[in-house]
Amino acid sequence: MGTAPGPRARRGAAPAGVAAGPRPHPGADEVVIAVERLNLDAASYRQLREQHGSGAAVRAAVLAIVAERGKMQNPVTGSGGMLLGTVTAVGPDSPLGLAVGDRVATLVSLTLTPLRIDDGLADWDGASEQVPCRGTAVLFGRSIAAKLPDDLPDALALAVLDVCGAPALTDRVVRDYRAPSVAVLGGGGKSGSLSLAAARRAGARRLVALVPTEAEAAAVRRAGLADEVVIADARDPLAVATAVGDPVDVTVVCVDVPGCEHGAVLATADGGTVVFFSMATSFPAAALGAEGLAADVRMLIGNGYVPGHAEFAMDLLRAAPGVRALFEARAH
Amino acid sequence: MGTAPGPRARRGAAPAGVAAGPRPHPGADEVVIAVERLNLDAASYRQLREQHGSGAAVRAAVLAIVAERGKMQNPVTGSGGMLLGTVTAVGPDSPLGLAVGDRVATLVSLTLTPLRIDDGLADWDGASEQVPCRGTAVLFGRSIAAKLPDDLPDALALAVLDVCGAPALTDRVVRDYRAPSVAVLGGGGKSGSLSLAAARRAGARRLVALVPTEAEAAAVRRAGLADEVVIADARDPLAVATAVGDPVDVTVVCVDVPGCEHGAVLATADGGTVVFFSMATSFPAAALGAEGLAADVRMLIGNGYVPGHAEFAMDLLRAAPGVRALFEARAH
């Protein structure tokens, strides 16, 4: 796992080089990647399709963006995506722990990854956010890349890597308590099912999965990931509180729709913690909601980076067949 | 201090009664307030002025809103404000610890406080967000109200109450570490100066105040609230990291402008904590920024409610003449 951060003092250095485009030889702390595929961020791809229409026009737009910016950053959405490739060169001072020949996926946005495209994206019809691509990318000392495991299909490994911060932080938070009760809102999704497995391993005494539909509840029950599987609309505070029942010590929010803040707060006992992983979380709604409810809860912004998070999530998936089954079911 | 929350099971009950308007006699867990003044939220007042123009028209608009909604909630901004008044009746089961005759300020938004106006706002010219008002309001079991202290002017006490969550949570977080280094971004403001005083009292070893201007730096130096006072634009990540120097264990963000997330993360050591109090904080910017920087930092959403926060902040102000001087200087 190439997740070790560089020395603290260099943290500021990475952004300065971002726009420079990849160099043929790595700098002292850099790693050069022969790119195999880009996965465009879903929001970015959707915007490009809406603006440009045909697949050929979308392809031309991506080429133009990378030619101009030296990286794939959608100028409208601001977002990027990730890439897969093989390490071709490693600078002598690289802290990432990678070796030539390693197949890797980047865990830092493409918006921070210098990229050159060498094949004109000839193998991509523009009809999917999965972009076959021959090209070159550069990772910095503070980049994060995960070695793709030999024992898991690429698509499965990538799906796990996409959400690997959630189970790692859930593990940490659950271990702050002694045999706590834990609720995961959106327990049937990717980050949700991994968070349930992480909470169980970290010692959760009572584990509640909240999901929106009976079909999803049945899937989570089959996967055996929770003690209780309850159905409620996570945007309805009273419905969430009622469904969860006795307030829990830790609530993990993995529902990617706006408006889940108050339900999460209501479901959490005083002295408890809410971890918000959903990017749809509203900072003011959480802050003012907890204040308005006089709720003495700690609220964490789900930091997607925890040292060792990728390996931790892969291990969970290997150890919990129920999680893998949910992931594979979602892929179909 | 009437800050004790009601039993957990009743948390969901308060909103249901919100729109009903005040009743003449308190319910079992209610408190009736003879209103003396409303302080409209700044954003709400600005919107009303822009929409309605003259003071008389603004007054009519506020009367119409309260008549229609049973509470002062600006339909455009969604925000309310707070009120001052005197307790006239206390239900037998009220958990707020208030007695008839207490002068109080509400710490929960007017948007959650049933209100009836009895004087047509005759004493208000509509030219300020401070609204003299005779009327009746009702607090619920889960409302939060603070008794106004006898030894501080109302205006000063209200200014402290407005930000009292910040020093209380800063105290908690700083005590999670052993003699930590602490930086407060926006250390010259109300929540910032109180947070500096709280961090000092909680055992901060090295205390850095970051402010935007030389004038503010001079004021914070005179107040003696920090070991180091540094000047930087909190929206410039590298400038913040450079100004703070050695990364700190705890960073407290009290700068009420957007774009301070990355600087706060960069200024914080691995294993450290960032507490975001600014309502201008962007959840995705914080989450994705920390991930992109591979920063192993804990990020807290500043919950404005901590049990005992109002009394805690008043005590800090009394004990730290420098804080009081800053507050009084800002009022002029």
List the topology elements:
The structure is a homodimer of 332-residue chains.
Chain A: H1 13-17, E1 31-40, H2 42-52, H3 55-69, E2 81-90, E3 103-106, E4 115-117, E5 130-139, E6 145-147, H4 154-162, H5 165-174, E7 181-185, H6 190-201, E8 206-211, H7 214-223, E9 228-231, H8 237-244, E10 248-253, H9 261-266, E11 268-276, H10 283-292, E12 298-301, H11 309-319, H12 321-330
Parallel strand pairs in A: 7-8, 7-10, 8-9, 10-11, 11-12
Antiparallel strand pairs in A: 1-2, 1-5, 2-3, 3-6, 4-5
Helix pairs in contact in A: 2-3, 5-6, 5-11, 7-12, 11-12
Region (Disordered) (chains A, B): 1-25
Biased composition (Low complexity) (chains A, B): 1-22
Domain L-erythro-3,5-diaminohexanoate dehydrogenase N-terminal (chains A, B): 26-149
Overview of the molecule:
The structure is a homodimer of 332-residue chains. With 332 residues, chain A is an alpha/beta fold. Chain A has 2 domains: 31-161, no CATH class; 165-330, Rossmann fold (3-Layer(aba) Sandwich), CATH 3.40.50. Chain A is 35% helix and 22% strand. Chain A contains 12 helices and 12 strands. Chain A has helices at 13-17, 42-52, 55-69, 154-162, 165-174, 190-201, 214-223, 237-244, 261-266, 283-292, 309-319, 321-330; strands at residues 31-40, 81-90, 103-106, 115-117, 130-139, 145-147, 181-185, 206-211, 228-231, 248-253, 268-276, 298-301. In chain A, the strands form 2 sheets. Chain A has a 6-stranded antiparallel beta sheet with strand order 4-5-1-2-3-6. Chain A has a 6-stranded parallel beta sheet with strand order 9-8-7-10-11-12, with helices on both faces. In chain A, helix 10 links the parallel strand 11 (268-276) and strand 12 (298-301). In chain A, helix 2 (42-52) crosses helix 3 (55-69), helix 7 runs antiparallel to helix 12 and helix 11 (309-319) packs across helix 12. The longest helix of chain A has 15 residues, at 55-69. In chain A, 55% of the residues are buried. At the A-B interface, helix 8, strand 11, helix 10 and strand 12 of A face helix 8, strand 11, helix 10 and strand 12 of B. Chains A, B: It comes from Actinokineospora soli. Chains A, B: Residues 1-22 have a biased composition (Low complexity). Chains A, B: This is L-erythro-3,5-diaminohexanoate dehydrogenase. Chains A, B: InterPro entries: GroES-like_sf, KDD_N, NAD(P)-bd_dom_sf. Chains A, B: Residues 26-149 form the L-erythro-3,5-diaminohexanoate dehydrogenase N-terminal domain.
